[in-house]
Specification:
The complex is a heterodimer of chains A (60) and B (312).
Chain A: E1 19-22, E2 25-28, H1 29-47, H2 53-59
Antiparallel strand pairs in A: 1-2
Chain B: H1 22-44, H2 54-60, H3 62-74, H4 100-104, H5 112-122, H6 128-139, H7 142-155, E1 160-162, E2 165-167, H8 176-189, H9 191-197, H10 208-216, H11 218-226, H12 250-254, H13 267-283, H14 294-298, H15 300-304, H16 306-311
Antiparallel strand pairs in B: 1-2
Helix pairs in contact in B: 2-3, 2-8, 3-5, 3-7, 3-8, 6-8
The chains are: A alpha+beta (60), B mainly alpha (312).
Chain lengths: 60, 312
């Protein structure tokens, strides 16, 4: 059994990727998804209220 | 009294204070990221493309390997004409009047003829025809060698791989047929990888020479192209297969896609200079009037601390 992976990936990505080609912009779907997730995280970091807000309100 | 400067001076804080547990937040962040890493690795795996070696290259495309080896003898490969830090093949890329690499000089000397061809062949034991061929090469004049290489190169456009041998329809090429064939056999056995890596001290982790040799062929470039890793494919931010890559390098690779850099022979040093300038601007933001005012004028901070600004 030597050489066999302990646990194979459920959705392996080891096949040629797909790319978005728009003018001189050339980006893989994988990178585009990561960028979109980063933008969502950034917006969430700004908009999601700080934890403990209600506690602070009550203590005022 | 000194006038208050909004971008430089901090106003005195008179509001309430609240306790904050940074250890708790750090621990939570660590645990969340660790769970994410394990979960994503389980779901999607990770890139594990096998490294290209001279052995795998010469077995997959022996003609390309032999053509490249001939180019090393002929002095027509990228490495042969690269210049510093490897040799004096050219002055290297220029930034205005400066040749930056050339200013540093040849710090990792690589002589393609000697290092990639002659020295490895010399290390092959018990091969009489090869010994004779090398002796013929060593005793020939430079003009004679150039003539052999020129004749062999002209015929090399018809080079084929047949019955385990490189076949080139050329005559009067001296020892070149034996040398190129022996080097190809050596490469296909994996011995050339070893010959180019070892002999540089106790640790054998210096892969400069095999990497340069592999990069001189077209096989490696074609592989990179198929994986969208070339410079003109935004390759710097891509990963092999379908995995996400280094998206944060978008700005660095962006410059290579637009004129004048997309067609400039000095693109590497020009893009490097632009990114150094951009990095310096970023580092010096607090000292640059106008630039340092952007966060205050954009007022994103008022969104983050909207609760505070609503009540104050």
């Amino acid at each position: 059994m030597v050489g066999l992976p302990l646990l194979a990936a459920l959705f392996p990505l080891d096949h040629l990727g797909h790319y978005i080609h728009w003018g001189w912009v050339y980006i893989s779907y994988a990178n585009a998804i990561v960028v979109a997730l980063m933008v969502i995280c950034f917006v969430a970091a700004i908009w999601v209220p700080f934890p403990g807000r209600n506690r602070r309100k009550e203590s005022r | 009294m000194k006038r208050f400067r909004p971008d430089v001076d901090a106003p005195e804080y008179h509001g309430p204070y609240a306790p904050y547990d940074i250890i708790k937040e750090g621990t939570i962040a660590f645990v969340v990221v660790a769970i994410l890493v394990v979960a994503l690795a389980t779901l999607f795996g990770s890139p594990d493309t096998k490294a290209v070696t001279i052995r795998s290259w010469s077995n997959a495309d022996p003609v390309d390997f032999a053509t490249t080896a001939l180019g090393e003898l002929n002095g027509t490969t990228i490495t042969a004409g690269y210049g510093a830090p490897y040799n004096h093949g050219s002055l290297g890329q220029e930034l205005g009047p400066l040749h930056l690499a050339n200013l540093v000089g040849v710090t990792i000397p690589v002589n393609p003829v000697q290092d990639f061809v002659i020295a490895p062949l010399t290390s092959v034991p018990n091969d009489h025809p090869l010994r004779v061929a090398l002796a013929q090469w060593h005793t020939a004049s430079s003009a004679q060698r150039a003539t052999w290489v020129s004749r062999y190169s002209h015929a090399a456009v018809h080079m084929t791989w047949s019955n385990g041998h490189i076949v080139v329809p050329a005559t009067d090429t001296g020892p070149l047929g034996v040398m190129i064939n022996s080097l190809t056999q050596m490469a296909r056995s994996g011995a050339l990888d070893q010959a180019l890596v070892t002999g540089h001290g106790f640790y054998t982790t210096n892969y400069t020479k095999p990497l340069l040799f592999v990069a001189d062929g077209t096989y490696f470039a074609n592989l990179a192209k198929s994986q969208h890793l070339l410079g003109n494919q935004w390759g710097m931010m891509n990963e092999t297969d379908s995995y996400p890559g280094q998206a944060w390098l978008w700005l660095y690779t962006f410059w290579y896609q637009v004129p004048p850099f997309s067609s400039s022979p000095n693109a590497d040093v020009q893009v490097w200079a632009i990114m150094m300038l951009a990095s310096a601007l970023l580092l010096l933001v607090p000292f640059i009037p106008g630039l340092r005012s952007i966060p205050r004028k954009v007022r994103v901070y008022r969104l983050i601390w909207r609760e505070h600004y609503r009540t104050s």
